[in-house]
Target: Caffeoyl-CoA O-methyltransferase
Amino acid sequence: MACSTAVNHSVLGLQRQIVGKRLSLLSLPAITNLGGIPRRRRSCHVYAHLQPSVVSDDPKYGNKQVITITPRLYDYILTNVREPEILRQLREETANMRGSQMQVSPEQAQLLAMLVQILGAERCIEVGVYTGYSSLAIALVLPESGYLVACERDSKSLEVAKRYYKQAGVSHKVDVKHGLASDALKSLILNGESGSYDFAFVDAEKRMNQEYFELLLQLVRTRGVIVIDNVLWHGKVADPLVNDARTVSIRNFNKNIMEDKRVSISMVPIGDGITICRKR
Ligand SMILES: C[S@@+](CC[C@H](N)C(=O)[O-])C[C@H]1O[C@@H](n2cnc3c(N)ncnc32)[C@H](O)[C@@H]1O
Model:
């Protein structure tokens, strides 16, 4: 991270994200060069000499140049994210909480909000709210008539989320479902709401992704969109030597989605990787 660069964001909070889960994937080649420096001791000056580099210039890929997002470049990207003040406050408050690395990054939240707006979405679902950063980003761009079902099992993080919905003046648009997300989705289906949602974002228990996806595919209308987070899982999905349950499950999910003719797909290397699925 270029420490001296002026950024619109809390440098402290973002540095935590930058050396943490969210950026680690995209700067993986850089991180592997760090020669065993413990994660907590890696600071921006460690990365300062690193330049965005071509990670794939093999002729078999048509000599395409795919850059690595170094901390300096990521810092630049963040200066170009229009993060609403209320989201900045929520991010900074969450930075001191347990699990803060789970929060989507500002540029991811901006992309989610953009998708919602492009779709003209009115009815949305989020699976995995935590303290509400991504759900608030969505709720902020929904029209007054818009509606977001927000599923989360942890009451403590929901308290923070609800406080921010209120502060942002969007509480009336958010229907919080406290409990297991799959139960909430099943009851929406039982309630006759299949095919009535425009947009869904999945960011909860990764081993449940296939189940969430199947339920959401029922709930989302034709040409509706489902976005799944963490599909690159810090790069572990591409490493055949990593075979823990979560990695294997995400890898299998990615394979299934790739072959699933019910949706068109686009895997996007932003944050920890998302896949955007459009129901056919
Ligand atoms: C990665 S975090 C979500 C981050 C959130 N999207 C944000 O940007 O702040 C995952 C959340 O999913 C919740 N979760 C995990 N399994 C769940 C389940 N089965 N049902 C409901 N929530 C669940 C966790 O409690 C956690 O808060």
User: Anything to note?
Assistant: Residues 11-80 form one domain.
